[in-house]
Design brief:
Blueprint (H helix, E strand, L loop, with lengths): L1 H4 L3 H9 L1 H22 L5 H4 L15 E4 L1 H7 L1 H37 L6 H56 L3 E4 L15 H11 L12
Parallel strand pairs: 1-2
Helix pairs in contact: 2-3, 5-8, 6-7, 7-8
Length: 221
């Protein structure tokens, strides 16, 4: 009875509501400790802390900004257009195989339906189960191979990005002495911004550096 009377209410709440409630309690305790600690040893004031922050800031006249539209690079760069063709070629092979397998399964299904009055119940059931297994296996194989195409494509895109595009962008930043480069997909520009969009220059430089990148053969091909 003594133990029941002295049970910690926080512990009871932990048992009742689980680990999420325990985390909430722990955060609340830490917060209270932080406040207590701050009150006991507050350190420098805000004004004193700000003494280490300089008054220097970038002057608008010093800023050199450019915009690059990554979607246009993906659509128009020679190497990336070639990669898409390679991906589409694998996808077309997969579609052709799917069509062939579907015809085979449709033929098998028709044969099973014709044999309903000939086969025993057990034999018919075995053929149906075998047919269903083939359909399930085909679906798994197609999904895995479709994923392997996407993975190989994404890997090739990443290689173009890291080995070719990034160095060109960095070189352009140095050559133009740019302070900031913005992804044009998220930028809104007004008038009198000639030279701001350098996308075409980046595409031309990328085309000169690399025009084709071989995509790794996906698994299953």
């Amino acid at each position: 009875m003594a133990n029941k009377t002295n049970t910690n209410p926080v512990a009871k709440k932990y048992v009742k509501t689980g680990i999420i409630a325990a985390i909430v309690v722990a955060v609340a305790v830490l917060g209270a400790w932080a406040i207590k600690s701050a009150n006991s040893n507050s350190g420098a004031s805000v004004a004193e802390s700000m003494e280490v922050v300089s008054e220097n800031a970038v002057n608008g006249a010093d800023l050199r900004i450019a915009v690059i539209r990554m979607d246009a690079i993906q659509a128009d760069a020679d190497a990336l257009k070639d990669l898409r063709k390679q991906k589409e070629s694998f996808e077309e092979k997969l579609r052709d195989e799917l069509t062939k397998k579907q015809k085979e399964l449709e033929k098998e299904k028709a044969e099973i339906e014709k044999s309903q009055d000939v086969l025993s119940r057990e034999a018919l059931q075995r053929r149906i189960v075998d047919y269903q297994n083939k359909v399930s296996q085909l679906q798994r194989d197609l999904n895995e191979r479709a994923q392997s195409i996407e993975m190989a494509f994404q890997k090739a895109l990443n290689d173009v990005q890291t080995k070719h595009l990034d160095p060109i962008i960095e070189g352009t930043i140095d050559k133009k002495n740019l302070s900031l480069v913005i992804d044009g997909r998220f930028a809104r520009t007004g008038k009198n911004v000639a030279g701001l969009d350098i996308t075409n220059e980046i595409i031309d430089a990328l085309n000169k550096k690399v025009s084709k990148v071989k995509m790794e053969t996906p698994k299953g091909f």
